[in-house]
Amino acid sequence: MIEMQQTAGGLSRRGFLKGAATGLVAMTILPSGLVTGEAFAQMPKATKPETFASLVQMSRDCYPHDQIPDKHYATAVEIIDEAARGSPDQLDLLESGMAALNRAAAAAHGVPYAQVKAEADRVALLKAIEPEPFFQKVRGNLVVGLYNQKDLWPVFGYEGSSFDKGGYLERGFDDIDWLA
């Protein structure tokens, strides 16, 4: 919450400026999160906020899981974004790739990629760029970035490593109740 410093005469100039700056930052960042319906705790370190939000939507379209909130997709995108921070080539790949995807979406649907309403339409746009380095980079990073989040493992029924608990022989090796 924004904390305003008060003086005997009311609000101090410093408190006002601090609150105004915080509000301005929130207004700048929130719309990008609202593109996908959720504001993210993660902040882009290299990409533009709208690129980050579009990458989150792209992540959800590549690996759709309705039961997983956007914050987990944003965590996966944050890894890609952090890598781009140290590499101008990777940053350019992300920014120019998303710009091209937005142009394709605008040509077909009149709005940027993340604002295309129908999931099937967004997936069709992704299928068209599937062989491109941009798509392959994002998709490849998402495999690890999304599915290596330990708090998501129970959602997928994965109990984690069994080696440190004695192996699978006594811990589910013969669990085939899905077959019955």
From TrEMBL:
Top-level division of the source organism's lineage: Bacteria
High-level lineage: Bacteria, Pseudomonadati, Pseudomonadota, Alphaproteobacteria, Hyphomicrobiales
Pfam families reported for this sequence: Gluconate_2-dh3
Protein name: Twin-arginine translocation pathway signal
Stored InterPro entries: Gluconate_2DH_su3, TAT_signal, TAT_signal_bac_arc
